[in-house]
Amino acid sequence: MLEIEIDGKKAQVPDGSTVMDAAQQVGVYIPHFCYHKKLSIAANCRMCLVQVEKAPKPLPACATPVTNGMKVFTHSELAVKAQKGVMEFLLINHPLDCPICDQGGECQLQDMSVGYGPMKSRYTEEKHVVFHKSVGPLISMEEMSRCIHCTRCVRFGQEIGGIMELGMANRNMHSEIMTFVGRTVDSELSGNMIDLCPVGALTSKPFRYTARSWELQRRKSVSPHDSVGANLVVQVKHDNVMRVLPRENEEVNECWISDKERFSYQALNSDERLTKPMVKQGGEWKEVDWNVALDYVAHGLKDVCREHGGDALAALAAQSSTVEELFLLGKVMKGLGSGNIDFRPRQNDFSSDSKRAGTPWLGMRLAEIKDLDGALVVGSFLRKDHPLIAQRLRQAAKKFTKVSLLSVTGDDQLINLHARMTVAPAQLAAALAAVVKAVAEIKGVAVPAGVENATVCETSKKIAQSLVDGEKRAVFLGNVATQSADATQLHALALEIGKLTGAIVGFLGEGANTLGAHVSGALPSGANAHQMFEQPRKAYVLMGVEPEFDCANPQLVLDALNQASLVVYMSAFKHAPALAYADVMLPIAPYTETSGTFVNTEGRIQTFNGVVKARGDARPGWKLLRVLGNVLNLDGFAYTSSEEIRDEVLGKGAEFVGGLSNELSGVAISLPTITANGLQRIADVPINFADPMARRAPSLQQTADAVAPTARISEQTMAQIGIADNGQVRVKQGAGETVLVAKADNNVPAGCVRVSAAHASTAMLGDMFGSISVERA
Amino acid sequence: MAMLGSINGVLMEGLDGDNSWSLKDYVARGGYAQLKRILDSKMTQEDVISEVKKSVLRGRGGAGFPTGLKWSFMPRSFPGDKYVVCNTDEGEPGTFKDRDIMRYNPHAVIEGMAIAAYAMGANRGYNYVHGEVWLEYKRFEEALDQARAAGFIGQNILGSGFNFELFAHHGYGAYICGEETALLESIEGKKGQPRFKPPFPASFGLYGKPTTINNTETFASIPFILKMGGEEFLNLGKPNNGGTKLFSVSGHVNRPGNYEIPLGTPFATLLEMCGGMRGGRKLKAVIPGGSSAPVMPADVIMDCTMDYDSISKGGSMLGSGAVIVMDETVCMVKALDRLSFFYHEESCGQCTPCREGTAWMYKVVHRIENGLGKPEDLDLLNSVLGNIAGRTICALGDAAAFPVQSFIKHFGKEFEYHIEHKTCLVPKDVQWAGSGFHKIPA
Amino acid sequence: MFSAETLQKFAREVAKYPADQKQSASMACLAHAQEEKGWLAPESIEAVANYLGMPPIAAYEVASFYNMYDLKPVGKYKITVCTNLPCALSGGYHAGEYLQHKLGVGYGETTPDGKFTLKEGECMGACGDAPVFIVNNRSMCSHMHPEQIDKLLEECK
Predict the structure, then answer these.
(1) With an 8 Å Cβ cutoff, is A88 touching chain B?
(2) In this protein, which residues make up the domain named NADH-ubiquinone oxidoreductase 51kDa subunit iron-sulphur binding (chain B) (predicted)?
């Protein structure tokens, strides 16, 4: 520890601290622009110059290491003169038109110029003008003359996003931030650069000039978009969500959110919102009052139960539904005598359902990822499925963590990987078995039953070694592993590694409330998400699910829905395809318009409130289900608040859910036999098509992550099946077919075709990882 | 042009032959004998460094930091790669000595670097050559090939087990890369933007490894110091200012060029060696150490000797030893206008005071030169330069501020005249008369 | 994109640096690319970046930072004149003016026949030889008084 005195305040700080660190510890504010705690030190803005005893010149607090006994003065004449000098320089070429700047009111330069800036400019020369740039639908770089060259955006790309898309070109006063000759910024984390920009140079394209910061009310919320549960600030004006920003929580999302989380809010204000209950009568949709709609639903459901029994009824919910919604939906189903409820529409293999020891979870806290010595991620489009977990692993890999990836495509994760294996989906289990075997061989213990015949290669050995060495290691199962036909085998194999090495086994988690759904009674006691469609039912309740896009096999699901006599469709959006097969549409409030609770993948319980009034006649899902329960004359629906429901489900005051365990019992390893039979589909869920909100955010739909799916095939496989790069191909699965453009992509394993799910152009296809045929169109 | 004159010359002696730069000629002059002696005799690293310390060889690049002391900062026992880097990015206006060393005596640089690498336990080195000099870069590469073939660099040098790989890196036009950390960034294939220090290169240098950077002339002096002994080298100069030094004399003298003289030689002697003032005009001012050094009026410099301490006492810096001589036909406003443009142009753009301040200073000086000066401009300039100096990441901010400060301090009358009369104090028709243009040199 | 000869030069430069530091060769490779193509078009910069495994914008940063790279087409002969103070004292300004007069173009301009581009340069480290020009970044010309300038222009076919 080192002793330091700042403005007379004494503190002990750890070795290696900077003066800025120490100042923050003692609560002294030192003005700064380029410094950011999550980025490398640039020391280029010079705003944080302070006086250090015995130093002849003022020194930048951000870059000056504390030495024992150091005395620092942040408000001395020398320090203030230096700070004022820098402020003057920053302002000479900066437009002094704050009233018309989008950043006005929330600009660090504006704020600090009040404290350190001169009343009148001494600069009478011509101001430097920087030409505007166009970098895509999310970030506006229309006013680059405002840039103060702090390079936070550049460093963010290099260090956090993992991809350098912005750079500072030229030199001297002609330095300017730009992309490479007119390119767009495509990182899935790019919006964070808007937050990092201390001035009005990088602004939010969808938000700019729609509101002034002081008109906005800041409300806390939690992201419904992925399993991290990023903490959000939702900014609101006149009951409209105007902007979504990260709310700092070091344990969860640090200070970042993905672009999907930042810009999906656009869907909330869209015309596609469902704002009135609707009932189909004689083939015509009619807007009706809530009591009419709920009567209709209650009668319809009761009729089906009476005539066909409870088993003729099934419910499927999205993983972004709240604990309260899922719990009440489960209660309604139970009350009607049906155990056919599920929240895992993309899952294929449910054989672990009766064998799990507890609720599957990450196996650790998110914040512990940085402490891992080794990590193996199995079956994941990591960057796109879990942008913030990928970010954590990226940072960890830069330090000492050996991060390996075993997955189905060779997409660049922008992580300095220790090792990677890319195999066909059907080969995942065999490849993971090889790691298990290699681990056993390294440890010199018996090879576990079932993996004796696995073929160990150099890479599986390398991965195995990284899971043996060090103190803390983990095997994470991603979405592809969860959705795989061999999900239970992959799970069991991961547990074998855990047993042999002491590594933690964890699930990255598919949705915002996957854990919450597990503990809220939304797991089937009857038919699961596959069975309920495989054996068609008479009536379905869909909550927040868009079957065309959200299911493992949309064909199967749509066939079942089309034959049902009643489909109750609960959604925030008037989902056009549902108008064909649904009979009732009930507008439920999205996360900004309801209170509720999500449990993230580390088991953290996060409750949020609605931040705006529900749009039109939309109602919070839990209220709707409560009323439905009452209309159905079911017992136990007397809840007066969502908190009451939460407390009943999760216990009052709990911070984390209990009963977390990834153990399995009674699962024997038995590697699937692979029959090399035609082509296999690999379906990713593109990040900006991943949920109903993202799908309806115009800005996200213009990003590189939202280009229409193509049929991506390795050059080798293309040659084998006689397909040309950029040629049109007919892609068929079962009865569904579509015409796509074929693209050569050697990141796709041989014998596979990558065709994304969750898009209108592929919604008629079948299993995400099923067999597929491709022919010239 | 090579050497136009010397007193007790060391570095540039015996370079009159056509092939003075070749390995054969260098060896004939006694070249590589010191490297061989050190390796054969297994001289300790401490002894090598101590010899350099004794010589009081001060860094010839401009800062004048004692070389032996710098070498002793290197963590010699640090495992892994360690680097020695030679700074031949000679772009300080007025300086052209390293180019001649590279042209006529490149093996002295190679031998000096090899000895330095041995002394500091470094295994790799780069010589960063100024972008604008191509011939010398190619010649140095040839010299490297020769030295490699002869076993003076590479693996297991002269059978000693000592390894040192040396390469040349060519710049491409950026003054700032003469700053040692900008130079390292440049070798790493990035923009030449200086790093904040600490950490210093000795602990975190090229590719994050321990690195020592010296100027070309410094390295080239090393074999000679080991040959004659540190003490004798020191005695060539004066206490605390050891040895001889190359001075690049440019501007209004009859014979501009490089002169090797002992530190401590009177300026008047140097001026005489250069054949005196061109056209017999009156000396007005001298910038004694490259354009970043404060300008000195004639009467002050005439009383100085050419060494670090004397010039410093006279209010300037010996810097790189680039002596820019100006006669009475020079308009000091126009001269400063050009220098201010240079610093503004060459600012790397990284840190605020330099990026913004150098442009501001240039615009004001340029305005004054063009008859648009305002009475408050000189105070403004002094205030702006005060906000640059000492506030920047590297020394370019200071380097840009010193000329403005010293020109106004010593020649303020010319600036005031310009502001008041919208024209030069030095009549237009005599301005730049000393340039010698249209005259073909003999 | 590049000739075999240029690619060979690239390889030679890359070999100077540790295996994991290929980016170090960016300056030299950009220079060789410019030498072959006459100037650095974005495609050339990107090709160099891809060759070295660095982001294109990082290569662009380099190409736009060092002033001997030409990001726009230049004439067959690019003549850079040093006008910095030490050269100016010995005729740098005058030599530049003489050259401008002879070619009929100013600094930063190219003659209509595409033969000459004139540039004003900073210190080339040859102040004792003033006035000094550099032709096509490579050939340094010393003592450029009128006769020498005339001769140079004649030699530039």
Answers:
(1) yes
(2) 333-378
Residue C71 lies in a domain: no
Question: Rounded mean pLDDT of A50-65?
Answer: 96
Token pair, residue A261, equals 């989380």
DSSP letter string over A608-626? E---SPPSTT-B-HHHHHH
**CA–CA separation, A711 vs A228, rounded Å?**
30
Are B352 and A89 an interchain contact pair (Cβ–Cβ within 8 Å)? yes
Neighbouring C-alpha atoms within 13 Å toward the C-beta of A99: 0
Domain span at residue C124?
77-156
Please report which helix (H) or strand (E) contains residue A287, including its range.
strand A284-287
Q: Which among C28, C90, C125 is the nearest to B95, CB-wise?
A: C125
Q: Which residues contact B357 (CB under 8 A, 6 or more apart)?
A: A89, B384, B385, B387, B388, B397, B400
pLDDT tens digit string along B14-33? 887 788 999 999 999 999 99
pLDDT tens, A158-175?
Answer: 999 999 999 999 999 999
Residue C12 lies in a domain: yes
Q: What is the CATH number of the domain that holds B170?
A: 3.40.50.11540
A127 contacts on B by Cβ (under 8 Å):
none
Residue B57, domain member (yes or no): yes
Given B219, B236, B253, the domain boundary residue is: B236
* B359 and B318 share one domain: no
Of the residues B287, B435, B440, the best mutation for testing chain C's interface (the one with the most C CB atoms within 10 Å of its CB) is B435
Looking only at the bridges linking them, the beta strands covering B283-287 and B322-327 are antiparallel
Subunits adjacent to chain C (3 or more Cβ pairs under 8 Å):
A, B
Q: What is the CATH number of the domain that holds B299?
A: 3.10.20.600
Chain C positions touching chain A (beta carbons under 8 Å): 42, 45-46, 55-58, 60-61, 64-65
Q: Average model confidence (pLDDT) for chain A?
A: 97
Q: Cβ–Cβ of B251/C139 closer than 8 Å?
A: no
Say yes or no: C112 and C146 in one domain. yes
Q: What angle do CA A169, A173, A175 make, to 5 degrees?
A: 10
Query: Which residues in chain B come in under a pLDDT of 50?
Result: 440-442
Query: The domain containing residue B337 runs over which residues?
Result: 332-427
For residue B17, give every residue at least 6 positions away whose Cβ sits within 8 Å of its Cβ, in sequence order, or none: B25
Q: How far apart are CA A3 and CA A68, in angstroms?
A: 5
Residue C42 sits in the same domain as residue C111: no
User: What's chain A's length in residues?
Assistant: 777
Query: Which of B327, B346, B364 is where one domain is finished?
Result: B327
Q: In B295-395, which residue ranges form alpha helices assigned H by DSSP?
A: 298-301, 308-313, 332-346, 352-369, 377-388
Q: Domain check: are B154 and B200 in the same one?
A: yes
Q: Is residue A171 less than 8 Å (CB to CB) from chain C?
A: yes
The domain tally of chain C equals 2
**Cross-strand partners of A420:** A405
Within an 8 Å CB–CB cutoff, is residue A41 touching chain B? yes
